Amino acid sequence: MKLIIAIVQDEDAGRLVSELMDNGFGVTKLATTGGFLRAGNTTLISGVADEKLDEAIAIIEKTCRSREQITASTTPMHGGAGGVYVPYPIHVTVGGATVFVLEVSQFLKV
Ligand code: 2BA
Q1: Which residues form ligand 1's pocket by a CB distance below 6 Å?
Q2: Residue whose CA is at the smallest distance from ligand 1 atom 41
Q3: Closest CA to 97 of 25, 50, 45
Q4: I want to staple 87 with a disulfide (CB 3.0 to 4.6 A). Which of 61, 67, 72, 80 is the partner?
Q5: Is residue 35, in this structure, part of any structural domain at all?
């Protein structure tokens, strides 16, 4: 068995949970925050049988889009003692999904 940890954008999370559930996967949804953008995202965890892993990954790939987001740089535009901190926008492409697959040593429901 494998444990999938998928970090996705909030905009894709609801549809992804539905798609996974409709295809027989168990899933848990966690509200999380990305370290770089300091913005909300969603982490899904799902325990899947080894032979179903590719199917689950395919659903994640199909459902999650990449999107551009804008954040403010905190880097000074002019260095030195009189450095001026003028935030300027930087564009980052977020997603589709960041996926970790872990081996499960035990799966218990007690
Ligand atoms: P954030 O950390 O908020 O990152 C959002 C996006 O900002 C990233 O999208 C990436 O395009 C960009 N980014 C992140 N760190 C950067 C840096 N040091 N310099 C320049 N740009 C940077 P994704 O790569 O699609 O990541 C989406 C979210 O997935 C991340 O949100 C984070 O919550 C999670 N994530 C990504 N890589 C991870 C990792 N190795 N471990 C744990 N979580 C990760």
Answers
A1: 7, 34-37, 39, 41, 92-95, 98
A2: 98
A3: 45
A4: 72
A5: yes
